[in-house]
Amino acid sequence: MAYIPRPNSGTLWPPESKPSESHPDLRGNVMIEKSLLQALISKSEDPVKISISGWKRKFKGMDCLSVIVSEPFKASEPYVKPKEPEVPDEDVPF
């Protein structure tokens, strides 16, 4: 079964090869719910701002960065710490 991140989260992995220094150190995908995208677009100017939180992880001996996306924090609102995504080891593709 292919690894599919939970909604509004994703994982960045080191590439299998890095031909030059200009290539990314980490690469991956983020799955964003349409409802979050619509909310961000309706509340934002152009360009749309998205907040990203990340956690260093190690899955099956490989370092990665687990991330979640959310609406940007506003100073007038109380800070709510994003919940760290739970990714069971069996969901990791390698």
Notes on the protein architecture:
The chain has 94 residues and is mainly beta. The protein has a domain at 1-15 and 25-73. Helices cover 11% and strands 30% of the residues. The protein is built from 1 helix and 4 strands; from the N terminus they run ββαββ. Strands 2-1-4-3 form a 4-stranded antiparallel beta sheet, with no helix packed on it. A hairpin with a 2-residue loop joins strand 3 (51-59) and strand 4. The longest helix has 10 residues, at 34-43. The mean pLDDT is 82.
Topology:
Blueprint lengths: L8 E5 L13 E5 L2 H10 L7 E9 L2 E9 L24
> Strand share of the residues?
25-35%
Q: Structural class, please?
A: mainly beta
Task: List low-confidence stretches.
Answer: none
Order of helices and strands: EEHEE
Rg calculated over all Cα atoms: 15 Å
What's the rounded overall pLDDT mean? 82
Q: Biggest sheet: strands side by side, in what order?
A: 2-1-4-3
Cα end-to-end separation? 11 Å
Tell me the number of strands: 4
**Oligomeric state of this protein:** single chain
The main pleated sheet reads as: 4 strands, antiparallel
**Number of helical regions:** 1
- Quick one: overall form? globular
User: What helical percentage do the residues reach?
Assistant: 10-25%
